[in-house]
Amino acid sequence: MQRIKALLDPVREYIVFGGHMDEKDLFIEPTIVLNPPADSLIMQEEIFGPILIINTVKDMQEGIEIANSKPHPLTVYIFSQDDEVNQHIIEQTTSGTVFINDCVTHYSESNIKFGGRGESGMGGLNGSHSFYELSHMRSVLKSLDSNSRKPFRTPRYSDQEVEKLNSLTLSTFNLKYVFPVMFFGLFWITYLWKLVTTCLFSKKKNNNKNRRKSD
What we know:
This protein has 215 residues and is an alpha/beta fold. Helix content is 36%, strand content 11%. It folds into two domains: 2-127, Aldehyde Dehydrogenase, Chain A, domain 2; 176-215. It contains six helices and seven strands; from the N terminus they run αβββββαβαβααα. It has a three-stranded mixed β-sheet with strand order 1-4-5, with no helix packed on it. Strands 2-3 form a two-stranded antiparallel ribbon. Strand 6, helix 3 and strand 7 (97-100) form a beta-alpha-beta unit. The longest helix is centred in the last third of the chain and has 37 residues, at 178-214. The protein is flat and about 90 Å long.
């Protein structure tokens, strides 16, 4: 009760509906706050109370930017019959879950996971997701090779294994051939490219001459 009061008292001038509180009966009237300052406490903290904040924006993109300027929310609620609008908001925002054209009831759907992201929580629960989230998947790996010594991984190496390992390293490659091969390759690539562009330019020039003659 005191926490909600501390959030609401500094922005009472922005209340457009409700706002009554009775500490004796522990009653908080459903309240609507219109366009409170961005730096106010109620805009920085999670409310967990019967208070709805409404921020008016000039367009959808401004609303998305305001949402993205805050810590990741538990849920993004979208109210729209336009599938393109819904998809755009989903792609441009980050949240634990997304709910379209309704509130709260997505928590009762056991086939989808409910949970936050980042500051709004970690992991997710509901149905079988709760079991997997609260269980530890223990990894067990058994090698099919029953030999106590693994070739190539434990010494001592046989001459044959040493030869195979050396064949996989650059140290066995004669580096004195690298630069000549690279130079030769780049030379021929440059030459062929110049030849092709010259032929195309010459063909285009001849076509222009023939066109002028016909005119």
